From TrEMBL:
Cell compartments where the protein resides: Cytoplasm
EC code(s) of this entry: 2.6.1.16
Keywords attached to this entry: Aminotransferase, Cytoplasm, Glutamine amidotransferase, Repeat, Transferase
Keyword presence, Transferase: yes
Matches recorded under Gene3D superfamilies: Glucose-6-phosphate isomerase like protein, domain 1, Glutamine Phosphoribosylpyrophosphate, subunit 1, domain 1
Domain of life: Bacteria
Entry GO CC: cytosol
Protein name (Swiss-Prot/TrEMBL): Glutamine--fructose-6-phosphate aminotransferase [isomerizing]
Subunit (UniProt): Homodimer.
GO molecular function: carbohydrate derivative binding; glutamine-fructose-6-phosphate transaminase (isomerizing) activity
Catalytic-site annotation from UniProt: C2, K612
GO biological process: amino sugar biosynthetic process; carbohydrate metabolic process; fructose 6-phosphate metabolic process; protein N-linked glycosylation; UDP-N-acetylglucosamine metabolic process
Glutamine amidotransferase type-2 domain residues: 2-226
Length: 617
């Protein structure tokens, strides 16, 4: 994970570095640091905690027109000042920031220690800094090509690394000069006028320049205030493709809300309107997607769909499986991206692979898509962040247009993903079995969604009372069936990640095959049971929990008056067609975890140990 930034140009670097790190804080917030190359020396400042702690420690930043910055999510070594970046190589001749994981770092470290290099951190990244210093020691200076020695040293060093890296490095003896390199961890170069930027993604660069270069794996960029060039690690200069920067700017203030998570929960009606805007076609009773890049022939010949993603995005893939199989009758297989990459399942021709991701930067999802693409399959992204690595790497896709999601716990991205998947189910369905009338009905239902979410949000005060009652629980079960089984998983994940209460989601009927053993007076069960096909069955499961003394909370349809006779607490949501229920039932679950986390004094927007974007495998 981690976020890196770099600057070389005519202005003081510090302002860009700190502002850029704030925008990359979603990638990790254990510790942070900057290196600023002043007149005589490189000043390094590091701090444990958030970017604000670093800014406070920096005070009035030292002047300097070359610099690096880093925000860390610890992989090797705890979150301490020693382990914070930038790291120093040799006797201080190399200063480096790194994002990624070096798998053979221990062997490299042992070799460097034997050569006399001294390590001050437990990180894998410090190994790269010393390796580059060793590379410099092995490469004599030349007069005719002043940059060549530094480039050769970096090439030599990265040639020995096994793992992933996005890195930026400056050299004590080479003012005004920066090298960036990428393998497996994204890196972009912002091309300004007389100034150049390096960053883990486009967000720090948006607003500074509108021209961007996405470095590819094995590429290095050499930057000075006068220009830049891109080289392949082994084969010399490559042609640079400067692209217009498309990053969407969005509302990133709290807008009166106490936390981003709450704000984003309340933004869901608008997020869904944006996801649907221009995509519902009444004339043909179908959905339209400009970016899928599929010919009508390709569309009709799709025989199977794989949906892959991680965490919450994997949950929306499960919802998508129900939707696409039911509405479009195309077999769907849902894969954890982290497993898909290494499982090597047989994938038939005419299979479409969708990577679902809010950030577009999740390393496992990117790797799974690249792996399936390598095998000749069409890979598409359902993604929120415009211009992100996964959006770039896919053959096409659908943007969510949900706006920036800042809270680490995903909320509006989940409902937007489900909404896009419902539209895809309609789109695929209308090329085969779905009739015009059914298409019209689906469109009508989709159009009602934002209002239904608005109505679901009115349960907030009721949910807060339930949260007060159960805030001290140590375990919570979430149970639902069919479309509401993925919602049960999502409700449990939300509670775990922000309130640190252990929670499990299960298909309600599976409960009696094991989890029911957990039921006691201190273990509440949340039943997600709006009216629908399996309502009566889930009701029986609820009775089974009650019979064993377990407290029961029901998320039920507003018209369901009977449920109050059985459940201890009832939170009502508007009636909705079954295929759209998960988009609505998740709202009270998001609010429940939010209120419990607030009541327990947890850091809702930046929970411990997590990061918004998981850029390591
Ligand atoms: C949970 C959460 C994570 C992400 C997962 C995938 O609230 O946010 O589980 O869903 O890390 O992230 P994206 O969707 O960015 O690929």
């Amino acid at each position: 994970m981690c976020g890196i930034v770099g600057y070389v140009g005519g202005e003081d670097a510090a302002e860009f570095l700190i502002d850029g790190l704030r925008r990359l804080e979603y990638r990790g917030y254990d510790s942070a640091g900057v290196a600023i190359f002043g007149d005589a020396d490189i000043a390094i400042t590091r701090s444990v905690g958030r970017i604000q702690s670093l800014a406070d420690r920096l005070g009035t930043p030292p002047p300097g027109t070359l610099g690096l910055g880093h925000t860390r999510w610890a992989t090797h070594g705890p979150a301490t000042e020693e382990n914070a970046h930038p790291h120093i190589g040799g006797d201080g001749e190399v200063v480096l920031v790194h994002n990624g994981v070096i798998e053979n770092y221990q062997a490299l470290k042992d070799g460097l220690i034997e050569k006399g290099y001294q390590f001050t951190s437990a990180t894998d990244s410090e190994v790269i800094a010393h390796l580059i210093a060793e590379g410099l020691a092995q490469t004599p200076p030349t007069d005719d090509q002043p940059h060549a020695r530094y480039v050769t040293a970096v090439q030599w060093a990265i040639g020995q690394l096994r793992g992933t890296y996005g890195l930026a490095v400056v050299f004590r003896d080479k003012p005004g000069f920066l090298i960036a390199a990428r393998f497996g961890s994204p890196l972009v170069i912002g091309v300004g006028r007389g100034e150049y930027f390096v960053a883990s993604d486009a967000s720090p660069i948006a607003g500074r320049t509108d021209r961007i270069v996405y470095l590819a794996d094995h590429q290095l960029a050499v930057l000075t205030a006068d220009g830049f060039s891109v080289l392949h690690r082994d084969s010399g200069k490559v042609r640079v493709n400067i692209q217009p920067l498309e990053a969407e700017s969005g509302e990133v203030s709290l807008n009166g809300y106490e936390h981003y998570m709450l704000k984003e929960i309340y933004e869901q009606p608008d997020a869904l309107r944006n996801a649907m805007r221009g995509r519902l076609n009444d004339q043909d009773a179908t959905a339209v997607f400009g970016g899928l890049n599929l010919t009508p022939q390709q569309l009709r010949s799709v025989e199977r769909i794989i949906l892959t993603g991680c965490g919450t995005s994997w949950h929306s893939a499960l919802v998508g499986e129900y939707m696409i199989e039911e509405l479009a009758r195309i077999p769907v297989c849902v894969e954890y991206a982290s497993e898909l990459r290494y499982r090597n399942p047989p994938i038939e021709n005419n299979t479409l692979v969708f990577g679902i991701t809010q950030s577009g930067e999740t390393a496992d999802t990117l790797a799974a898509l690249n792996e399936t693409k390598r095998k000749g399959h069409r890979t598409l992204a359902i993604c929120n962040v415009v211009g992100s690595s996964i959006a770039q790497a896919s053959d096409g896709g659908v943007y969510l247009h949900a706006g920036p999601e800042i809270g680490v716990a995903s909320t509006k991205a989940f409902t937007s993903q489900c909404c896009v998947l419902a539209m895809l189910a309609l789109y695929f369905g209308r090329t085969r079995h779905t009739s015009f009338e059914t298409g019209e009905r689906i469109i009508e239902d989709l159009r009602r969604l934002p209002a239904m979410i608005e109505q679901a949000l009115t349960c907030d005060a009721e949910v807060r009372k339930v949260a007060e009652k159960y805030q001290s629980a140590s375990n919570v079960l979430y149970l639902g069936r069919r479309y509401n089984f993925p919602t049960a998983l999502e409700g449990a994940l939300k509670l775990k990640e922000i309130s640190y209460i252990h929670a499990e989601g299960y298909p309600a009927a599976e409960m009696k095959h094991g989890p029911i053993a957990l039921v006691d007076a201190d273990t509440p069960s949340v039943f997600i049971m709006p009216r629908g096909t399996t309502y009566d069955k889930v009701l029986s499961n609820m009775e089974e929990v009650k019979a064993r003394g377990g407290p029961v909370i029901a998320i039920a349809s507003s018209e369901d008056t009977e449920i109050r006779k059985i459940a201890d607490d009832v939170i009502t949501i508007p009636e909705a067609p079954e295929f759209l229920q998960p988009i609505i039932t998740v709202v009270p679950l998001q609010l429940l975890s939010y209120h419990i986390a607030v009541l327990r004094g947890c850091d809702v927007d930046k929970p411990r140990n997590l990061a918004k974007s998981v850029t390591v495998e």
